[in-house]
Every structure is written in C-alpha cells, then in structure tokens.
Design a protein that fits this description.
Helices cover about 35% and strands about 30% of the residues. By secondary structure, it is of the alpha+beta class. The protein has one domain: Alpha-Beta Plaits.
C-alpha cells in the first residue's frame, strides 16, 4: 500500500522529525517521506492505516488522505 497524506499543521523541521520518529516505530512501514514545504507525507508498506492515523493524531498531527 502507498498513501499520501496532508498534515496541515507541520510548521518546522522539528515537526518533520517528530512525525518521522513515529513512522519509524509503526510495524510494516517500509518507506516514507515527510515534506515541510508541501505539508505532506508519502508512506509505503504493509501497515494498518487506521493505526497510523491514530498515532499521528495522538501526537498532534492529524492526517488527511490525499487522492
């Protein structure tokens, strides 16, 4: 699975690092790219999307899936 999400409240490189640290912990995620300029993330792997969204919401970065 590969998804792209908008994370509208990414405001700095610290936010990017915090999100990256969470993504590294989630089982099944193989690759990801978090971009400050587009306030988005591309995530690839075999992971539970609901769990991913919950974890990001828990740390204050609610994602919106993009088409």
């Amino acid at each position: 699975m590969k998804i792209k999400v908008r994370i509208s409240n990414i405001g700095c490189e610290g936010c990017v690092r915090r999100i990256e640290n969470i993504l590294k912990e989630i089982e099944g995620i193989r690759n990801f790219k978090v971009e400050l300029t587009t306030k988005s993330a591309e995530i690839e792997g075999d992971f539970d999307k609901d769990f991913l969204f919950k974890r990001l919401e828990d740390i204050g970065y609610p994602p919106e899936e993009m088409d």
